Every structure is written in structure tokens, then in C-alpha cells.
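Board notes, transcribed. Complex of a protein with beta-D-galactopyranuronic acid.
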Amino acid sequence: MNHSLLKTLLGSATALAFVATSAVAEDWRAWNIHTDGHPNTAAMDRFAELVAEKTGGEITVEVFHGGVLGSQPDALEQVQLGAIDVGNFNLGPIGPIVQEANLVSLPFIFRDVDHMFRVMAGPAGDRVSAGMAEAGIMPIGWFDAGARSFYNNTGPINSPDDVAGMKIRVMNNDLFTGMVNAMGGNGTPMAFAEVYQSLSTGVVDGAENNLPSFQSVGHFEVAGFYSLSEHLIIPECICVNTSQFEGLSADMQAAVVAAAEEASVFQRELWAEQTQASREAVEAAGVQINEIADKTPFQDAMAPVYADYLAANPAMTELVELAQSTE
Ligand code: GTR
């Protein structure tokens, strides 16, 4: 074989090897806690479609719905380890892992959902995102999760005194336990999947969540009073394992981010519709929903929660002030 033919052959072998490497499809496993009919399930399916489309099939995402890959705290650990690649996560259970993420888990920190999104789009949000990315859980899109309110089976809640003595399920984060305890209740962390059973058997007296989740997993069947305390406005992310993301080419990174942003716009539209639809559906099923005329006593009751939290986490003071001073 002459030298130049050998060179050509070697050259094409290298080219082939390159094509083969760059065309190796990545299959991502995605975690989602929600079931069919919930806006986040539709949005995660849309995310998967958009990723396949925008990466020309180089990255595919298989979404496992209904929390079948594990509870939220477990799944977050799996994302950090890279065993789960991506998921839709609530920032509440991220607080115990990422200090900055706890900003959004302070009760009544935001005036409303729009204020929360403005804060998240500004320098405070940048610091939350950076902390998450550093911990291996990188946010690439933001979902609306409305506001969380209390529900129970004994009667409407109109003041913190009505919470006193009640055992209330909360997500896994000491701030939430502290929040319920500051009202004289007993905050009980528990996996989302266990709440229905615990409400129906009286293991807990109540729980707290937004209206779409209250409806979608049937909690309204076992808790007939929903009181609009709106004490937590916590965003949710599409979050990806940081090193997985950083290992992608710039084009692939841009495609995945564009897919997450588009899926988030879709989610927020669905969210607005579903919040109204869920309210109507649970009311039609007999749930009594009460507005709380004056939320000040609830806000006042949170003073020790803030004081204790900031005493233990002084580095968070500046971030809290930044959020509160955001117009
Ligand atoms: C839902 C949220 C879930 C999960 C759940 C819970 O609103 O979307 O990610 O955090 O609440 O209460 O555990």
C-alpha cells in the first residue's frame, strides 16, 4: 500500500471515529413526582420532546412520572450523583442541601408570585442558581408552583391559633417544621407519597400545598377544608446534573436550555389555568375554601423563624434583605 493511500485511509478512519463519537446519543433519565393531568407532567413531557427536537436526537429524555424513581429528597441525591440526569424539583427540599436555596423557603418572603419571579430573575436569584449548580443540581428553567396553603379535616384556619395543636405534614426542610411549630402546631416532615394515607388514617391532621397538587393526588378527598394562608411561594426548577450539563458541547447546552425555557413558558400557562380548574373541581367535590382576611398574625408569628434561621445562618442575611428590597 502506498503512503498516500494509507494516509487517506487513516484519515477517513479518524473521521469515522469522530462521527461515531459525536453521534453517540445520550439517554437521560428524568424524575417527576406528578402524575397525569398535572401541569408539570405535561411540561416535562414537552421538555423531553423539545430536547429530542432541538438536539437532533443526540439527547433523549425518558421521563419517569409519579415519583417512581424515588422520593424527592432521594431523587435530589441521585441527581447530585448523576444517577438521575434531570428532573422537576421544588426548591423546598433543596434548602437542606444548598443554603442559598432556602431563601425561597422562608415563609412570606415574597409578596406574590410575580415578586418571586422578579427576585429569581435578579441578583438574588443568580446567587440561588449558582449555589445549586455548585451542589450539582443546576437549574435551567423555572416553573410556577403558586402559593402553598394549609388544609385539614376539622375546620377552616383563619389565624395561627387555629393551627395550634395540629400535626401538619410539611416537606423535608427544618424551616417548614419551624414554621408550623411557631404557630403552636407540630410540623411533621414526610414524603409526598405518604400524605394521602396519613391524612385518611389521622396520622397527621393536615398538610399544606398548592391547589393543583391538593387536587391531583386526591388530598381533597381526605381533607375538606382548604384555607388560603398562602404562606410559601416556592418556585420549581428543571434541574440537571451539573457535570452532565457542563460536559455537553456549547450547541447542545444551548439546545437543552432552550428546551427547558420553552417547557417553562408552557408550564406557566398551564399552571394558571389549572389553579382555577382545581379550585372549581375541589369546591364541586365539597371542599370548603376560605380566604383569610388578615394574614398579618401569620406573618408576625414567623418572627422567631426568621430570627432563629438568620442567627444560625448569618451569611443569608444579605440575600434575604436583597429579596425583600426587590421591587
Ligand atoms: C408539590 C410539588 C412537589 C412536592 C410536593 C410536596 O406542590 O410540586 O415537587 O414538593 O408539593 O408537598 O412534597
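The longest strand covers residues 225-232. The chain has two domains: 3-145+235-276, 148-232.
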